[in-house]
Amino acid sequence: MRITEIRVHGVADKGPETILDRPIVARVAGDDNAGFYRPRPGYGAAADRNGVTLEAYRWSRLTGGTATRTFSLVLLLPFMLSNIAVWMLPVTGRGGHAARALCRLLAATMTAMYVLSTVGVSLDLIAWQCAAYPRCLEGRREFSWLGDVPPGQRLALLAVPPIIAIVLIWRLGARTWQLPEDSDHAPGVGADRLDAPGFWDTRSLLRRLRSVHVAVALGTLDVTLLLVLAPHDATLPGWLLLAADVTLLAGAVVLLCRPAIERRGEQDQRSSRTIRWAAVALTALTLGYAVLPRPPWKAEGMLPGYGMLVAGLFAGQVVLLAMLGLVVVVQRRTLPRPLFLLAGLGAPVLITVSIGLGVAYDSGLTYGLAEYLDRGSSPTPARPLPPGAPPLSPPIAFRWATLGFSLAVLLVVVTALLGPRIGRDRRRREADKLVRRDYPEASRAAPERVRAVRDAIMRARLTARLGPLLATAYVVLALLTLAAAGLSVIGPGPGALALRLGGEPLARPVIFVTDLGALLIGLFAMVLAVMGLVAYRSGPIRLVGVLWELATFWPRAAHPLAPPCYVERAVPELTRRIGQLTADANAVVLSGQSHGSVLAAVTILQLPDHCRRRVALLTYGSPLGNRYRRIFPAYVSDEMLREVGGRLAWRWINLWRYTDAVGGAVFVPFVDGPDDRAARVDRRVRDPKGLLIPPTDTVPPPVQGHRFTPDDDFHAAIGELVERLERADG
Questions:
Q1: Mode of pairing for the β-strands spanning 35-39 and 53-58
Q2: 3-state DSSP call for residue 588?
Q3: How confident is the model at residue 45, as a pLDDT?
Q4: What is the C-alpha separation between 176 and 565, in angstroms, rounded?
Q5: What stretches of 173-202 show up as alpha helix (H) in DSSP?
Q6: Any transmembrane segments, and where (predicted)?
Q7: CA distances from 168 to 115, 277, 297, 339, 447 (A)
Q8: Burial grade of 316 (CB within 10 A; 0-12, 13-18, 19 or more)
Q9: What is the model's pLDDT at position 108?
Q10: Which of 669, 670, 665 has the alpha carbon at shortest distance from 683?
Q11: Long-range Cβ contacts of 505-510 (<8 Å, 24+ apart)
Q12: Backbone φ, ψ for residue 2 (5° rounding)
């Protein structure tokens, strides 16, 4: 029996040559985005020491590979994170509908925030504030002509950039990696189990969500315009249009909350299309209404109603986050033996982070343009404007957000510095015991060598502890900031409040921290953008791509404008390739490293029975047990992992190390005794192999950590799986 080992890499791969440890390879299936590679004949052995034919599956170009694609992933990061949150909920099916509906509503507020940021730049700062002040227009030919255009027509003209931004996300939301051959069933809305054939096929749901989000985006733009025009005109057509747009947004909220959006049905598809085209028609009517001639009219101050919309959006997000947290806590109590990240509150925490990133983008863009337009004379309660200067200023809610960003940076830095020191002595003692137990030669090794291994174990264990601590510290402050920003609709900004409470001695440091936050937010957004442009081709910065590859693993079920899920192509390709090999009397060892082990496991669940009889699974550096089980408990559960082992007749070996900060055991904490077949899956390997210099080398073995290269332990595991396949075939 011929056996092929298909190696599936993890995040931030270095090419098929590195995966196969062969200098020259050739693609045997697939394309440039995702393909299968083998050693080119005559340029290295095509098989390993067990006689197994080597093959690599490279999928990383589905998430990056070009500057444009990687840059777009950075810009869509807030949408991406809000989409992941829905998969972190502890309950699936009907019982989890309320939480999923809240996640979709929060995702819709992210779209509204995106539109309000473009509105703030185009309509508020340029069309309304700058165009009304000669000093702002002076020497700027690109804007100076706006001074002669009436305010209503000016708003209609400058509404074009936000509309272009909406069309852009409309087009981005239509992207998919799914091939026509990837599904032999009707377009679906996903499923609740990873082994369901339609789990990775969410085309129908995406079309509905995309239509609703386009309606939310256009409705937000229309309401912003009509809050200026309708009160000024005080005529029936303006109020009717405003009422129609508010009704449209309410209808979008209803559609997002209905359980029917998650089910197939032509009627619901028509409803989503209807609300989208109704939004397009209302936008056309609103623009037509805006260009109507009006009596002379002077624009003063901030765009009327805009600050209220921004503050109201923040307040609504806080309310929805509180409701989501309450629902998740109630659901969590109904589940047995909970072992959840952040006590099961991972979904509201991640959405809060995504909102924080969205605020960072919006505030950075708004403050950056305001500084450019007002020539550095931003007004504050403690810093009056010079004579004739335009009072260009973002909404008060953004001032609270920037103050919170400064404090969040400080809090995260303090937590990162103090967190590792809490309980450090206890962790050091535990790691030292592990080193002394694994290495009898420790007493003969150099003390520095022993400490290096001990510290590697400590760092690996600290990762699981420090990450949730940092996230919790950030989220607590972010929630307080969003709440304060929402309350700014009825209250003053941070500078004005400080001036009222403590006079200038208190106001000046508060204003300084707020201005510092605006600068940090702008730098943060700029750094992310630059890293997105260069990450695809820079080795060290390529590590930024780890986040994108992890985040786009799950289908788009909450925010349709997130980057497309690469697994919707990767899993069908792997199942198709395994089916081709097993049909030719081959057996397959599916070998997954790090995040590739997750791909391998979900592929096993999608394989038909006649293929699985000739398949074995090797995972190493796998986050399935210690990460995915805690972060996505409803989908990567003990039941799901045992299903993978059972479908393979337990031809599964998982290699793990104490020094690995990402990977770990899959079943060790959950086995039901020595007779449990799951107890034979996990095999801990020593890292490093020894503390002393081997007789055949000049330096001691390195500490590998999360890096896995084919070594003796790896080849021994492959050899054992080959024997099991041969026994099953015989």
A1: antiparallel
A2: strand
A3: 78
A4: 7
A5: none
A6: 70-89, 101-123, 212-230, 236-257, 277-294, 306-330, 339-361, 397-419, 466-490, 510-536
A7: 12, 17, 33, 41, 59
A8: middle
A9: 95
A10: 665
A11: 507/380, 507/381, 507/382, 508/382, 510/403
A12: -80, 140
Question: Which backbone phi and psi does 652 adopt, to 5 degrees?
Answer: -145, 130
Kindly list the distances between the CA atom of residue 515 and the CA atoms of 311, 399, 498, 522, in Å, as whole numbers in the listed order: 19, 8, 14, 11
Distance between CA atoms of residues 266 and 247, nearest Å: 23
Instruction: Give Cα separations from 530 to 72, 169, 538 (angstroms).
Output: 11, 21, 12
- Residue 54's DSSP bridge partners are 5
**Higher pLDDT among residues 467 and 44, named by residue:** 44
Residue 682 confidence (pLDDT) above 90: yes
- How many angstroms separate the most distant Cα atoms in the chain? 94
* Residue 692 CB burial class (10 angstroms; 0-12, 13-18, ≥19): middle
Query: Is the preceding omega at residue 78 within 30 degrees of 0, hence cis?
Result: no
- Residues of 154-175 as b/e, b for ≥16 C-beta within 10 angstroms? bbbbbbebbbebbeebbebbee
Q: Choose from 69-78, 192-201, 533-542 the range with maximum mean pLDDT.
A: 192-201
- d(Cα 492, Cα 495) in Å, to the nearest integer? 8
Instruction: Please tell me the distance from the alpha carbon of residue 276 to that of residue 262, in angstroms, as a whole number.
Output: 18
Q: Is 379 left (phi over 0), alpha (psi -120 to 50) or beta?
A: beta
Residue 653 contacts residue 683 (beta carbons within 8 Å) = yes
- In the sheet that holds 25-30, the strands lie side by side as 25-30, 35-39, 53-58, 2-8, 586-593, 615-620, 652-656, 682-684
Phi-psi group of 493: left, alpha or beta (phi > 0 → left; psi -120 to 50 → alpha; rest → beta): beta
Check: CB of residue 254 under 8 Å from CB of residue 216.
Answer: no
| pLDDT > 90 in the chain, percent | 29
Q: What is the pTM of this model?
A: 0.86
Strands 2-8, 53-58: pairing is: parallel
Reported for 698-704, long-range contacts at CB under 8 A and 24+ positions apart, including other chains, are: 700/449, 703/452, 703/453, 703/456, 703/659, 704/657, 704/659
The beta strand positions in 320-400, using DSSP E, are none
174-190 tens-digit pLDDT = 777 777 666 554 445 55
Q: 524, 169 in Cβ contact below 8 A?
A: no
Rg (CA), the chain: 29
Burial of 12 (0-12, 13-18, 19+ CB in 10 A): middle
Report pLDDT digits (tens) over 41-59.
Answer: 877 778 887 889 999 999 9
With 70 as the cut, is the pLDDT of residue 116 above it?
yes
CA distances from 463 to 222, 457, 540, 617, 686 (A): 46, 10, 20, 27, 20
- 264-317 pLDDT, tens per residue? 655 667 888 899 999 999 999 999 999 998 888 887 778 898 888 988 888 888
> Helix, strand, or coil here: 379?
coil
